[in-house]
Amino acid sequence: MPMNASDIERMIKSDIPDAEVTIRDLAGDGDHYAAEIVSESFRGKSRVQQHQMVYKALQGNMGGELHALALQTSAPK
């Protein structure tokens, strides 16, 4: 069963409470999303480390219920 955008956002904010999260459904199928996530907790971390934080927040759902998620992460300007 595919995940919906609100579930993805909720899971991310659960682990990264200050995150500003924008989710787009890329294909209209509930399986392919793009997420833009801005969080102060990303400051000073590499892009890989930032993405690892997001994957951790998704609690193993990447590749299962959530087939594809294009990530754009950054610290606030």
Tell me what the structure shows:
- The protein contains 2 helices and 3 strands.
- The protein is α+β, with helices and mostly antiparallel strands and 77 residues long.
- Helix 2 links the parallel strand 2 (32-38) and strand 3 (68-74).
- The longest helix is centred in the N-terminal third of the chain and has 11 residues, at 5-15.
- It is globular and about 35 Å long.
Topology:
Layout: H1 5-15, E1 20-25, E2 32-38, H2 47-57, E3 68-74
Parallel strand pairs: 2-3
Antiparallel strand pairs: 1-2
Largest sheet at a glance? 3 strands, mixed
Q: In which order are the strands of the major sheet placed?
A: 1-2-3
Q: Stretches where pLDDT falls below 50 for ≥5 residues?
A: none
Which class best fits the helix and strand makeup?
A: alpha+beta
Percentage of residues in helical conformation = 25-40%
* Secondary-structure element pattern, one letter each: HEEHE
Question: What Rg do the Cα atoms give?
Answer: 12 Å
* Strand proportion: 25-35%
What's the mean pLDDT score?
90
Distance between the termini: 37 Å
Q: Number of DSSP strands?
A: 3
Global shape: globular
How many helices in DSSP terms?
2
